[in-house]
What does this fold into?
Amino acid sequence: MVQKSSSQNFFIGLSLSNSSNYDSSVCVLDRNSKIVLLDKFYFTQDIEMFFKDSPYVHNSTICVSVPYDNSLLDGKWRIHSKNYKMLGDYFKINRQKWTKRLSNRLCDTLLNLKEEGFNVFRCDINQLRQAYSLNAHYLSRTSLDCKSLQSSLKIKYAFDELPDNMLSASSLESIVCAMFAKYVSLNDDVIELFEFESIKVLGKPF
It folds into this structure.
């Protein structure tokens, strides 16, 4: 592993939901890996306002999770069908893009930040949890899973400032994203998983 110095003062992680019906969270870490901000958003406009007005955004590295799109199908077939069904454009059922698995929410805003010179990239939160040994031992995003993740962050990664009461799943995931933002700033051995809407989706090696 090649480690490098970073001139960034802050490392921002955004756990992004696929719509305003679910909460998104942002975490800001300083150079000492201390949490200086942990906040929750619902509306896209509020997230855009954060990137526009927050003093932490300047001189920072920004990591945003790629949300899965589960809004196009209902019922038990929603996830399974998207994972392995590959249909051509000539199928009528594909008119609603029911095989689309990733949400493009906030992509334009992130692309604008990138074009303005900000260090922005995306991540897959499930890959990061495995790479950081924060695997989901319980059903993902359940109360047991959140409790396990919060305890692991406090014990393994010394986030002593986390409260005793349980945080939301998005808040905990935003901390993981911020950790990865700092990792990318300090290390060269990152994995480029794929590119989504002109922004690289990076992964952490195991």
